[in-house]
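yo

u said u wanted the structure for the complex thing, so here. seqs first:
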Amino acid sequence: MVCKNSSLNCDCSCPDFSELAPVLEKYAKVPGSLITVLQKTQDIYGYLSIDAIKYIAQKTGIKPAKIYGVATFYTQFRLAPIGKYLIMLCKGTACHVNGADAIEEAITEELSIGDGETTEDGIFTLNNVACLGCCSLAPVMMVMGDEGEETYGNLTKDTVKKTLREIRKRVQEV
Amino acid sequence: MRIVVGQGSCGIATGAKKTAEEFEKQLKEKNIENISVQKTGCIGSCFLEPIVDIYDDENNLEVRYVKIQPESVAEIVEKHLLGGELVKEYAIPEKDQAFLGKQKKIVLRNCGVINPENIDEYIAIGGYEATKKALTSMTQDEIIEELKSSGLRGRGGAGFPTWFKWNAAKENEADQKYMCCNADEGDPGAFMDRSILEGDPHALIEGMIIGGYAIGASEGVIYVRAEYPLAIARLEKAMEQATEKGFLGKNILGTDYSFHLRIKAGAGAFVCGEETALIASIEGERGMPRLKPPFPAQKGYWQKPTNINNVETFANVPWIIANGGEAFASMGTEKSKGTKVFALAGKVKKGGLVEVPMGLPIKDVIFDIAGGIKDDKAFKAVQMGGPSGGCIPAELADTTVDYESINKTGAIVGSGGMIVMDETTCMVDMARYFLDFTRKESCGKCTYCRIGTKRMLEVLERITNGEGKDGDIELLEELASKVKDGSMCGLGQTAPNPVLTTIRYFRNEYEDHIYNKKCTAKSCKPLLTFTITADACTGCTLCARKCPTNAITGKVKEPHVIDQNLCIKCGKCHEVCRFNAVNIE
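structre next:
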């Protein structure tokens, strides 16, 4: 069997990085572009796998430990796959004052997941974020899926549950 | 005639996009061809979104319709656009006009007026005239002199004079210099920069070109936080259009000056608001601050002289160049010139974005502009400056908003977040909230910041959990002074501020939590006691069925009782009770 990423020295059970290859071609030799590379990698695969980190290391000459260090420093990067929809629950000051904790409770009640977890059916992942900048609509969440992102404001425990149910229904109907 | 729908992130979140689409659909269905539907950025009055402005053929604002959901569109099309008659019930109420009354718009002059995705609209109202003036008729020193006379100070938090930084970067000779913009608005509770990026991206670009020219930089980088996808998209479009028109790139406007601009998407780290951390992040590293000096003006991005300002600072520059530094300095106080944009949120009636001259009393902002406190509750405090700032209590509401006066209270103007709190907000919990934030965001380089914030958080958690001990307040104060002294960058140096200001102004609340095991704001659940008022309880059994620990007992149609030994204080009974029979003490 021929290795899909011929330059990787492996026993060839390695994943296919053909989508990532052009990104690295463009950025591998541009100094200071590691974060950009990691962002694009996450855009493609949804998260940064250890294999992807090793692949990037090989192409850029940056040590895997250093890449891991950068990946874990920033909140944007994930080292595990996420569900079809990423719920970004705002925990900014205005949202905190207006009851973001109750909204988190409602999400947990509805989906049985906490911060950083994914539902068993793989539809939702919950991430608490620092601030979405829609403070006057607090409490707020942003849901990101294939169709793009949608922001929901002035949430109550009931409306957040209703929104999640609608999304789940939409997915299951397809 | 044209219809303009405000489509900043907030507007879109309330459904503005669907409203705009509905207008387009209706116009098409009814074959109305002489009316166009356009978009604009944040109008600032977030509490009225979605907002629809109707302009007549002479481009005068005919009427502003507010809270327009798609369902209302047909009526407006029918009555106003076809019938020429104002639809009164949707027009902005007179009382809400006051929101704009005391404001003075310099930075937000174009937000909510022009279409941010069309450079021609920006040019039509005098856009890029300042760039022309600066590049063709002013020297580097003249620009810096103009900024000096304007008194403009950094709007990102520290309030450092902008001209001084520019001059330092200019004075350092180098073959390459960089002009950076910090658009990584990391303060939770602040959204001024997002609105400028979304509503008037060219003002920022222009500010950077002029600044770049003044310090002698040929390259610029805008560091935007990745949580602002719309801002990044509009900025990209604006840069593309500016390049096409010859305002960016080689030999701008036929002069010798060239300036290349690019966007770098941040990856989420509050500490990157610190200049040296931001530079490390642009270089693709972990965003950890380093010792200064050397300052970025000496050795910054790739070891070259670099200047960093925030979005609002840059957005002021074109106005200053066009109208002169004196005009800018005529607004504000002796030491704080010009205007400041504030993001008003929390427990106010009318949240949104306001721009006021420096020196306006806080109470004018909260009561005259924002309409006072939601549900007419009592005003307790206002938090300014985010995790680096502090809580200003109601009795200091006469304090004016300018750098010096706010600093005296122990808070800071910061980037401009203003979170208003009422009697139901627990100040100890607020301190805990901010420490939780700074503890997570500490980069870990300095021991005092890394461990000190963690220890402070533990003490605060203990207090809000009802396990506070005698001496905890003093311990917090001691830790606070050590974290301040032992940290290298602004994050650690200011992290204790929310704790210190709440202890300073609300010490009684701390004492209530520790000694009386009471949370007067009724916010810290472990300190509350839930009881059922027998007179109000109808015995519907709903609370008993919802109680996760079966702590509630009682017969059908008879008053229920909560067993305090079993109660875990989750509040579920209070939430589900339809007769207001669950009492919280």
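The first strand of chain A starts at residue 85 and ends at 90. The CA atoms of residues 110 and 119 of chain A lie 10 Å apart.
cya
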